[in-house]
Amino acid sequence: MTRLLHFVAAETSEAQAALAELRALYDDAGPENADVIVALGGDGFMLQALHVFLGKGKPIYGMHLGTVGFLMNEYREAGLEQRLDRAEAAQIHPLRMRASAGGKITEALAFNEVSLLRQTRQAAKLRILVDEKTRIAELICDGILISTPAGSTAYNLSAHGPILPIDAALLALTPISAFRPRRWRGALLPHRARTRFEVLEADKRPVSAVADDFEVRNVTCVDVGEDRSISTTMLFDAGHSLDERILAEQFID
């Protein structure tokens, strides 16, 4: 089956060289006419591509030419059309963040995670509510994050959060260097949960909120929930689907 392709690449010399090579081998139909977007870079660039092409109804197939490539396929020039014919699809939904700062509400989407982080040497103090019920009255920490299954092997895993199967109807709530309560390791939330983070002593202990790579500083309150009305599709080589990668990651030392 012949697919119309559009290639996009990170700004690195390696990715740009690969972009030129692939465009010499395959026709580039442009972003509007393409059936599939082929993204060249690392996981950070894949997240950018997911945001750029969100709502276009075009699946994205990544090839690894960056630092981290968990969300990417192996880079090879030959046989791309055959690989796409056999590719396995993963449908993912983003988190929607509503952050209050300076009397203004800012919304952003995150395919990996929404994180709250202290801005200064002072630890953050946060109140956590889930579905309007206070779960932790005061968490003293460097920060906290809420992760999708697709993002559970990224920052969430580095913060010792759980790895979630891609089809799990769950979100991971993971503290970052929690001081009090010291033994709290986080929680698994149903995907429909609505989580609110209230920043305590916000003037003394400023906090920023980050949705993937979009940051809002000096927040006072952040609401996070999965937006199931929005979805996008990622393509992975046969035998290397996203759910297989996430499963395999749990057995790596």
In brief, what are we looking at here?
This protein is of the alpha+beta class and 253 residues long. The protein is built from five helices and 17 strands.
Provide a descriptive summary of the structure in words.
With 253 residues, this protein is α+β, with helices and mostly antiparallel strands. The strands form three sheets. Strands 6-5-16-13-8-9 form a six-stranded antiparallel beta sheet, with no helix packed on it. The model has no long low-confidence stretch (mean pLDDT 94). It is built from five helices and 17 strands. It has two domains: 107 residues, Rossmann fold, CATH 3.40.50.10330; 132 residues, Tumour Suppressor Smad4. The longest helix is centred in the N-terminal third of the chain and has 13 residues. The protein starts with a strand and ends with a helix.
